[in-house]
Amino acid sequence: MLAVTTDTFANIKLLDSAVKFSSLDWNIVNDTVMGGRSSSRWFSNSSTTSTFEGFLSLQNNGGFASVRHDLDKINLTNTEGIYLKVKGDGRKYQFRIRSQASRWANYSQEFKTKEGIDQTFYLPYKDFKAGWRGRSLTDLPILTGKDIKGIGFFLGDKIEGKFKLEVKDIAAITQNSYSIIYKNNLIIGAKAPVPSKQDKQFDPMTIDTQEVKTD
Question: pTM for the complete prediction?
Answer without folding.
Answer: 0.81
